Amino acid sequence: MSVLNYFFGSKTAAAEDAKPAALQVNGLPLAKGMSLSQWLQNVRSNPLLDHRTTEALPETADVVIIGGGISGATTALALLQSQTPPKSIVMLEARELCSGATGRNAGHCKPDQVRGVAMWTRIYSRSTVARIPEVPEEVWNGAGTQGAPSRTLDVPVTDEVAEATAKIFEACKAAGGPTDKVEVITDKAEAVKRSRIKSACAVYAWDASTLYPWKLVAHVIKRCLSMGLNLQTWTPALSVAPSSSSPDQWTVTTERGTITTPTVVHCTNAYAGAILPEFAPVIQPRPHMCNRAVPPRAWSGSGALQNSYGVLLPNGALFSINPRCTADGVVLFGGSNPGQGELEKYVDEKPERRTCDGLSNFEPVTRPVREFTQNEFEGWGTEFAPGEGYDYSWSGIIGDTADGVPYVGPVPGKKGQWICAGHNGHGMARVFTCGPALAKLIQGAEWADINLPEVFQITEERLARLQAGEKNFKHRM
């Protein structure tokens, strides 16, 4: 299967089969098939969007990286900055630079200090659980290039959710997790005051960053280009196969020709199964929506939100909120809000929708955002001046893994192919360690030499176990 068909689904109807497959989405040009996020909307004049370092696609390269998001960018930079950098690296991006999951999130670099523990303790040992939420200094150093440090608040809004959150926090603490970095407020009145959310029952606060993810990737890519990276946008990889003419080499086939290389790095997250079919059963693409709101006067200026949020709702629902308090002040609402179920139903009607990020302004997801702000933010109101209010939303695709943690390392059974994918919605907080770690592995390091939890390592045993369905469940962000 080509990566393009995987991005946007195999065509099933006879009429659709008759349409040309190249750069098409439901019969429309590919550019019209993707929604523009807040981040992509505001960089339309940036030449990196459609940058091609060379007019022609190179015929050979020491390394080919598939994917131009944060995983591909950090891996490329680490390789180029190493003591023995590859002589040539080609990066293939199917569409515009950073137009996948990295360029579509809500702008958080928010490590999951607590919430994931409930799931991880069902699978892993206490010592392993303690390592998964770790936040090495590299995360803040990497995010700091284009980010603003802040406190992030996890806020349960019912007694039941608060009780469950407290139990998870204690489980994390018992497992040796980094709970000493988390400030806990359990007095309801104080929680309301701190969070500015009327129904707040508690607050869990820790350090995080809000950032402009596209500009972060552009910053890294500029450095890579200055060090010799060859970036080729609008060049979807269609397949990777053993070279017929060069032993121990791979042929990467694209719309614009082929590249022969000994090393292929897959940084396509939810779309990894397009070229690596063995990963299709164990990486579940999950569409999400992000809503943008221009706040009313009462919530602007000195009244603007100053923290990012995870608002914890019943039944596992969540609002992820980024107020962009050091920038334009718009408030971005992501996460699995109460409308996520309707989005899942919509997606399940046609399988190709699961990997299509062209959806915008999906009312079942936008409606809970309106209801939450109107009910929970004092003075937000229902009437807006021209230019205020809920003006736009866009879609993105999260890559959920079958056991809730990413796949990092050599692709089993395919010597010379490597993967960093399946970030379960937490890629911005993990890739600053995963990308450089993968680069070290590519250059000969052993797993014991890199600073990652062992459960991130992709092995033949782990892949076979997950394919068999032992731990096959859908991880929720």
UniProtKB/TrEMBL annotation:
What InterPro entries does UniProt report for this protein, alphabetically? Answer: FAD-dep_OxRdtase, FAD/NAD-bd_sf
Recorded superkingdom? Eukaryota
Q: Which Gene3D superfamilies match?
A: D-Amino Acid Oxidase, subunit A, domain 2, FAD/NAD(P)-binding domain
**Annotated ranges, domain FAD dependent oxidoreductase:** 62-441
What Pfam family is a match for this entry? DAO
What's a single GO CC term here?
A: cytoplasm
Q: What is this protein called?
A: FAD dependent oxidoreductase domain-containing protein
